[in-house]
Amino acid sequence: MEVGHFKGSSIVAMREFIRSRGPEIEQRFYERLSPQGQELFKKALPVTWISFEDDPGDLDIAADLLFPGDPEGIRKVSREMIKFMMRGIYTIFVRMPSTAFIIKRLAGMWKANYDVGAVEMNKIGDKEAHIVIRHFPEIMKFQLESLCGSIVGILEMTDAQHIQVTYDSQNKNAIRLYIKWE
How far apart are CA 24 and CA 182, in angstroms? Predict the structure, then answer.
């Protein structure tokens, strides 16, 4: 079975995001990573492809440190991390286009960050979108939660409000995401 890979840019972003939370959080974060995870965090470059099998569990650790006991911790970490990543000059590129325009670009963003799976737009309306993820081997709940949080974060940057992202993962061959905003 094909396992798949993700771009090291997410590891680099998490490294910078955790560092921005202060030395105490950074130290506690690194202490909780496995030795392999620590090594990955030290060496990863944005262009490095990392096997899903080598995922260091950083989202769980960050969620536990930053949002202890919160069942939406991974969503919140991903939401904050995407906003952290898109600061500076990128803010202009996200704020100028419409929310629907940004959503239409999700397929391209997916291809840039994953070497497996494909995103299809089923529907893009005035205030909602339906997206299908296909050909992604064994998507895990934390990955879906992270994706949902990232979508909320980037759409908040377009000034969309009351954003809701839900998913249906019953059909493993076609994971459905439902996005609504005002």
Answer: 38
